[in-house]
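STRUCTURE:
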């Protein structure tokens, strides 16, 4: 039994193949269809949420990831640079919001392409303004950023065309969802005042105890 090799792509004997005319124009390409940009997700604000600022500090490791041991998150009541501003440690007082915020920020800042990552070995501070729209939706956007300079000191990034600053600003699209369970600042302030009152009571009790011991030693 013999087998014949099947040739694919060759014309059969006697079949005419149309030749391209010299100087013929290539077929026009169809214009690319523009995809509609997806609308950002919206989140309903909890009733107790008020406009305020949040600052996130972090360090970028050599692998381009945020170092987990050098993170701080603070919610600010009042103007951030004002003398009367009150700062709350969210990692301690509202860890759910803090973790959600760090997760979303990290997702946007990291890139598998090394050339598109934030510079390794730099410390950052990002200020976010959280507000509620007239429709009751959460709005969160990066309004300022600082990073360590060549001298190792935090300096505000004022060049809006800086690619790293633009990358941080672009993270604003994902941040609103971090505040759907945000704790009321009034509640946190009440807790801080109670802690301070407890500390003062403990200090006074320690002073009284020291005075009693001193008095007893004199009698001896």
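SEQUENCE:
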């Amino acid at each position: 039994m013999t087998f014949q090799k099947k040739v694919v792509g060759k014309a059969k004997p006697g079949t005419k193949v149309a030749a391209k005319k010299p100087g013929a124009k290539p077929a026009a390409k169809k214009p690319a269809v523009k995809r509609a940009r997806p609308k950002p997700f919206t989140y309903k604000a909890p009733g107790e949420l008020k406009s305020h600022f949040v600052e996130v500090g972090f360090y970028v490791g050599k692998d381009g990831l945020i170092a987990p041991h050098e993170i701080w998150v603070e919610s600010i009541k009042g103007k951030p640079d004002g003398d009367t501003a009150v700062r709350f440690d969210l990692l301690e007082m509202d860890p759910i919001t803090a973790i959600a915020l760090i997760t979303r920020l990290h997702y946007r800042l990291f890139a598998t392409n090394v050339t598109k990552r934030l510079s390794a070995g730099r410390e950052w501070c990002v200020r976010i303004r959280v507000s509620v729209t007239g429709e009751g939706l959460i709005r969160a956007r990066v309004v300022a950023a600082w990073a360590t300079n060549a001298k190792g000191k935090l300096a505000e990034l004022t060049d809006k065309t800086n690619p790293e600053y633009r990358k941080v600003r672009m993270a604003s699209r994902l941040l609103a969802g971090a505040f759907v369970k945000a704790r009321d600042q009034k509640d946190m302030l009440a807790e801080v005042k109670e802690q301070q009152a407890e500390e003062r009571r403990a200090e006074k009790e320690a002073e009284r105890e020291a005075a009693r011991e001193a008095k007893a030693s004199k009698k001896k």
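REMARK: The helical segments are 90-93, 95-109, 163-170, 185-219.
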